[in-house]
Amino acid sequence: MNRQGSRSTRVLVAATTCAALALALAGCSSSGGSSSSGTSAATRLNLTVEDYYSQPAAAAYDNIYNACAKQLGDTVTISHIAGAALIPKVLQQVSSKTMPDVLMLDNPDVDQIAATGALSPLSNYGITGDGYIPGIIAAGSYKGTLYGLAPAVNSLGLFYNVTMFKAANLKPPTTWAQLQVDAKTLTKPGQYGFAFSGVNTYEGTWQFMPWMWTNGGNEKSIDTPQTAQALQLLTSLVQDGSASKSVVLWTQADVESQFAAGKAAMMENGPWNIALLQGVSGLDWASVPLPTPQAGQKPVAPLGGETYTVPQTGNSAKMAAAGKMVACINSDANQVAISKAVAYVPAKISVGEQFAKTNPLLAPYVTVVQTARSRTGELGNNWDTAATAIYTAEQLALTGKDSPAAALKQAQGQ
Amino acid sequence: MKTRDRPSTLTGGQATASGTPRRTRGRRLRQDRAVTWLFLLPALIYIALFFGYPIVKNVMMGSENYTTATFYTGSAPWVGWANYSSFLSSSLAGTTFLNTAVFTVGSIAGQFTIGLAIALFFRRRFPLSGLLRSLLLLPWLLPLIAGAAVWRWILDQDSGVLNSTLLHLHLVHTSVPWLSSPGMALYSVIIVNVWIGIPFNVTLLYSGMQGIPEEHYEAAAIDGAAGWKAFRYITWPALRPVVTVVLVLGVIYTLKVVDIILGLTGGGPANATQTLATTAYQDSFVQFAFGQGAAVNNILLVVSLLFAGLYLRVNRRASDE
Amino acid sequence: MRLTKRRQATSTVIGIGLLAVMLFPVYWMVNTSLQSGNVGASSTLVPLHPTLAAYRLALSQQGGDIVTSLTISCGTVLLSLAIAAPAAYVLAKSRIRGRSVILLALVITQMVPGIVIANSLYPAFDQLGLLNSRLGLVLADTSTALPFAILIMRAFMVSLPGEIIEAARVDGAGLVRTFVSIVLPVSRNAVITAGLFAFLFSWSDFLFALTLTTGTNLTPVTLGIYSYLGGEIQSWGPVMATGVLSALPAIVLLAFAQRFIAVGQLNGAVK
Predict the structure, then answer these.
(1) A348 vs chain B: nearest CA distance in angstroms?
(2) Is it true that domain B84-319 has CATH number 1.10.645.10?
């Protein structure tokens, strides 16, 4: 009897164990995610990602792309196409229908490419952009539909040389009037008080936006007194010698070079310079938001940052995977990783505020981007015409060829 | 000594060896004609394949409303002369044409005369001349992006090494705004373009000079003609075909220059260095108005064609001698 | 021109002086590439703390690219000369009908902006599977070099005296034989010069390299420079180092080629 009992017990135990194992296995395969379902080779996709980063930033992004792909169970082929060459390349790809699966676009370009019809709405992949800075959602949207989402953003601020300010017993300026006075005070042979970029490209326009917008100017019509006042501020800085006449040629990289060499006491530039500045020995610097016309105002600065989009490639499986990829790149953890790597700030408000606590150098920018505005927000894919008019007018005024008001009028009319 | 070119020296002319039967000569001629075209054919096919379609497409684009959307949808509505009139009636058109003319004339004059002088200098044989001649090619070999950046730093008004040197030597009293003044910028850009173009001229002219037999100079020296006279009566006439090509192609290449200007000034300050080529580029790739850009390009093509016509006219005259 | 030893020495000195002026910007480029710290508008006249860091970086990343560029450029030279030389000869010496039209067409090809050609080649090469291939780049670069090579060689060949060709024909040589054994050797300067420029065009081509590759496996050295210039940060040190490094192999080859440009090859050729 005992032996029979033990035998049936053993059978029972064995059966229970088998059942348990079977249930466990079944549970595993159903919760294992899309990667292990099916197990046929067809589910392992190779996605192409295209962006314009150069080293060393490219390495940081490569890690993120690879990690995201791994998470999805796919592989990724990465193309870095330097800077200005990206858009012509993208257009070639648009016309030959050979677009990448995930395409990075600088936020002011999103409208241009979305207008062609070559991008797919991100809502198709469940991406809504909730909790993000309103400006970057506006930048990544065309006619109200979200096409591109940026994990990290940047803007403009005022960098100043702490040593020089201490020596002159000054505090960083918070108003335009203070800026003019401080710049003049800190100008001496071999050193300018203020440096900015007024170059004949969209970079010059970008640097003009905070002055224009904070004073109430609008890109729809630049022929207004508010915009003229902003232009007058910059013109007067050049005219009284506080800023070099070469600002009409300087890019933001040139401006940083001047500041780092101690040839400018203050500069208007963005947080991406922080790594470079930290590496300059003997330079004690800090950054604050840009001065505003009156005390107590919040500066309205332009929003920079690159978005990720999903082009229409016609391959729905790949597009779905690309959508997941874009979502992954925009995850909270990746926003922090990217921001740390290239000195941007996270695009999601909550993530940004947390980030500011542990990254004091970037904290001023977390505040600035919350009220920052996108360049294409109002004019969409007609932004380029306005941007050209703005830098044209700026050049005319800064070189003294025209008064600010006349320059703006002429540029607006072109 | 030079003799007159007989018709079709490829075949040595009709009056070859006497006594050759007419039939053999005829066959020979037909063979020659076939081989002649065979020599040309690969080149013609290549040109047609690589240039035919793009040229036609670009000419047509000048009359289309070609936007970024066209890249995707393929549709570009016909607008006739609208792009052309829009450019020609803009306030910038006059400046652009003038800048283009000044830039081209200045560059060619500088490149050619300095190039010729240097080529003549290198005709002498002295130690290291070969090495020096090769090193002279460096401005052309180095990437334009690097060259433009370096020149921007050299010409910087405040910290550029050129102004520092000039001030040090007391040749000027205030720093010169080479690139930051609308009045000076174009001339500074011309200087840089001349610098880049000198190697091109030197190499071609030097090569051409090397083809002139030494005997000609020796014979002339015996007659008492040396130096300037030798140049005027021997070197220059012998160089004419090469000079023609160098000048005409030089003009065409200069008309096309975009990278150097954009790298130095971006077309500014205040459009002081904006040429037809830079306008066309910016229209297409900065403003995404491709139809407009193509229209300006076509205008540039017409200007170039005028020079090309000149080339053929001079060429025909030269080969008729 | 033979000079006295003294005049030779003076000429060398003048030559070096000339080069020093012409190549000062090149010196500045090298100077920048050796500077540590922030390079750009604030570079000093001589590198105060010279460092080879930029070169090390450039070599480690661009070394293979130089070989790629060499392969493509040599291929371009061979292909261009093979097609251009016969065509140049015909256009120089024969009175075929349509010669003027062909010449005009060649000159017109030089007026077309490169980006227009590149945009048309991209879809075509994509369909033919020529993207990311050395052959594709050789074909594209040849299209740039070919018309120029024809025009230049033609200009040189126009001055060829007819007698030497007639002499060959009288001796019964066919057209091809005349071309290969008489015309080509005598046109040595022309061929070498044309080849030199074909190499230069191909070596310094950026546009086709950018358009016809997808940035993954095939990168000629011109693209390498741009990998330091994307986005906002511009690292000029490695850019200058790469620029200098990329020019060196080309200079060596060109110096080698220039030795073959001989004086007056027609000396004594016309009996």
Answers:
(1) 30
(2) no
